[in-house]
Amino acid sequence: MKRTGLILLSILLIAALLLALAQRELRPLFGFPGGGFGRGETAPAALEEESPAVGPVEGFDETSAGLKQLARQITAEIPDDYGKLCAIYDWVTANIAYDLEKAKKMEEYGYGAEYLLENRKGVCHDFAELTRALLKAVGIKATYERGEVRPAPGKTEQHAWNHVQIGESCYGLDTTWGAGFVDEEKGQFVQRPSRLYLTTADELARLHSDPAHKEAREIEWSRARAVAARAVYLPEYESGLLVLFNETRQEAGLAPLKEEPRLSSAVRQSAAEAAAKASQDEEYSLDRLNRELEQSATQLRLARAGLYAFTVWDFPTPTVEEIHRLIAAQQDSFLHEGPYQGLTVGVVRRGDLLTVVLAGLSYY
Asked: Which residues pair with residue 170 across a beta bridge?
């Protein structure tokens, strides 16, 4: 009898312990071998880059009840678990920022899902906790993963992310890296949501451990984004660059260039064509624009024309001043030459790609 009583007492103690652990949300430590889902599961379908609306959701508090309400609002009318996973990932990466100050003095700040939701900024551990809590609120099992990653060559750091199992597919998601990046020169976080870090568990592990692969995938993502984007003309950049070019010329003792609006359409079109080629990593030329200038030479009284194209990949879009400095540093630019009297500037943005085409004109 004593032996039976001890066995029953042991069972009751184990049950109480498991219940307490579940209430404290330590469940990811149990039931998932190795602290996460097994690798080598069926790969998910290709991820769509276009994401659903991810604007701020109003009318909720920052308590656990508020977390559940927020999760339901984010995933409203989405019938499948994968769609809910994407919606939650998109919301977190678009609305939560990385906290550089907290990263320096962790002990002086709070932590966790509710802390992050209240402050709207935190570190990787907060991101992973919030993501897991939102997924759990809509019935999707997720783990909190933690380990060492290599974000850049020669650099390692402790990091946190999530794994999710939906059916036969295992997903890895890193909402911290997916939210944006740190501009090391300016010392600030740049919000730039990306689906690149919602992928398979295997692929996320490689992104975390192989900086060269991470860089290559980010370049691919930027190119795909540029290919899918429409060309946007930036007239304020065109007029701003003309002013700055003339300031540079005057400092060098050269006459300022007059704006030539009659070629604006042709130069802009050439910039758009160059951007389309560059977005696909293809060579481009200004031959078509050069032929148009030759055909218009008599009408415009052109004696000479100098053409120049400049492309830069960057996010956020560089300022007019930054673009001017980059172009002015190019020694082969005709802007350093004296014979030109006119200038037409075309500036096109396509995703993270900015293209500038300049047509310097000498009249007779």
From this structure: 165
- Token pair listed for 30: 């149990």
d(CA 357, CA 202): 42
Confidence band (pLDDT; 50, 70, 90) for 332? low
Instruction: For the chain, give percent helix, strand, coil, nearest 5.
Output: 50, 20, 30
Distance of alpha carbon 43 from alpha carbon 284, whole angstroms: 37
Instruction: Please give the Cα distance from 8 to 222 (Å, whole number).
Output: 61
- For residues 8-13, average pLDDT: 42
Q: What is the CATH number of domain 232-363?
A: 3.40.33.10
Whether residue 3 is predicted with pLDDT greater than 80 in this model: the reply is: no
Q: Cβ contacts of residue 107 below 8 Å, gap of 6+?
A: none
Percent pLDDT > 90 in the chain is 71
Alpha carbons within 13 A on the beta-carbon side of 202: 8
Instruction: Tell me what the pLDDT averaged over the chain comes to.
Output: 83
CATH architecture, domain defined by 37-228:
Roll (3.10)
Task: Choose the weakest-confidence range: 35-49, 120-134, 277-291, 339-353.
Answer: 35-49
* Bridge partners, residue 142, by sequence: 164
Token pair listed for 48: 């769509």
> In the chain, where are the structural domains located?
37-228, 232-363
Separation between Cα atoms, residue 322 and residue 92, nearest integer Å: 31
> CB-based contacts of 311: which residues, under 8 Å, 6+ apart?
274, 275, 278, 353, 354, 355, 356
Provide the CA 358 distance to its chain's centre, in angstroms: 29
CB hemisphere CA count around 32 (13 angstroms):
19
- pLDDT tens across 14-33, in order? 444 333 333 333 222 222 22
- Residue-wise pLDDT for 299-314, tens only, equals 999 998 989 999 999 9
Q: Tokens at residue 184, please?
A: 């090391």
C-alpha closest to that of 179 among 88, 97, 74, 86 = 97
Q: For residue 227, is pLDDT > 80?
A: yes
